[in-house]
Amino acid sequence: MLETLGQGGIVMIPLALSSVLALWVILDRAWRLQRRRVLVPEIVSVLESLRGPSDIPLAKLICDRNPGPFSTIVQAALDHKGRSKHEIRERVEHQGRQEIVHLERGLGLLETIAAIAPLLGLLGTVLGMIEVFDVVAQQGAGQAQELSGGISQALITTATGLSIGIPALVAYNYFVGKAERLVLDIEDHTDRLIQSVMLFREAEDTDAS
User: Fold this and answer.
1) Domain containing 184: what range?
2) Which of 8, 57, 107, 145 shows the greatest Cβ crowding within 10 Å of its Cβ?
3) Is 183 part of a structural domain of the chain?
């Protein structure tokens, strides 16, 4: 197998590098985009159990103990709880845009690999076919064994490029969809948090009056 891949020529070098990078991104996102790692159950639980302003310090403490995109966005809402609903939402959205970058880290590279791997494979095939036609020009078309071997070697890069590009594209679409679903879940929790903060303030104003 390795000998066969080695016959693909110099284009196999960037293809091999692409395969390593794609595998690294896939493993990294598979680990970091686990639902429990993003939507930390402890944070979800404390948000769902908020009953009044006295519970907010506990929520902040839980967020401090579980750093990540979700806790950072929640803290943005809690740190600005004294402002208007519009201002809190703006702050949360601003922080959310920054955290989305962390959730989607590496996916741009994976998309690029999915696009260029088949093209690199095609480039290798074209270069291989050029060598085949050079053989035809120099020795004639009667060297069937050499020609078939050369064509076979030329097609190795195309097969390799497709073998890298197709899984990379599938993984890219999967992780983009997963990141988007996690973002929607985070938005749902933060929206409910903002509503709770507003209710706490209204209750405090009513008690004060």
Assistant:
1) 18-208
2) 8
3) yes
